[in-house]
Design a protein that fits this description.
With 114 residues, this protein is mainly beta. It has no helices and eleven strands. The strands form two sheets. Strands 2, 4, 5, 6, 9, 10 and 11 form a seven-stranded mixed beta sheet that branches. The chain has a four-stranded antiparallel beta sheet with strand order 1-3-8-7, with no helix packed on it. A hairpin with a 4-residue loop joins strand 9 (92-98) and strand 10 (103-104).
Length: 114
């Protein structure tokens, strides 16, 4: 089955850390770049981080640079988002995405609050 399945997320205090995972199946994961997006109610889904197919290049939204790190393990067909020094503004539903058939993960809630 062609899908992206996410894990991780939850409630964390400000300056805490979380790691999100997104496992791909049903297609050749290593051929495609991956992205993480974030969305809040009433707002447009925004790109948070992206990584090239081989993992050699990454890009980040200015608001998360230096705090969030995207990585991938092509042997495990999984992309990760390590989130450190989290702020309340990082709260939202996070989605992984691949351009292959424009697939999206199911979304996972991250709430940063004391």
């Amino acid at each position: 089955q062609v899908q992206l399945v996410q894990a991780g997320g939850g409630l964390v205090q400000p300056w805490g850390s979380l790691r999100l995972c997104c496992a791909a199946s049903g297609y050749t994961f290593s051929r495609y770049p991956m992205r993480w997006y974030r969305q809040n109610p009433g707002k447009v889904r925004e790109l948070v981080a992206g990584i090239t197919s081989a993992g050699s290049g990454t890009n980040y939204a200015d608001s998360v640079k230096g705090r969030l790190t995207i990585s991938r393990d092509n042997d495990k067909s999984t992309v990760y988002l390590q989130m450190n020094n989290l702020k309340p503004d990082d709260t939202g539903v996070y989605y992984c995405n691949t351009p292959f058939r424009s697939l999206w993960g199911q979304g996972t809630q991250v709430t940063v609050s004391s």
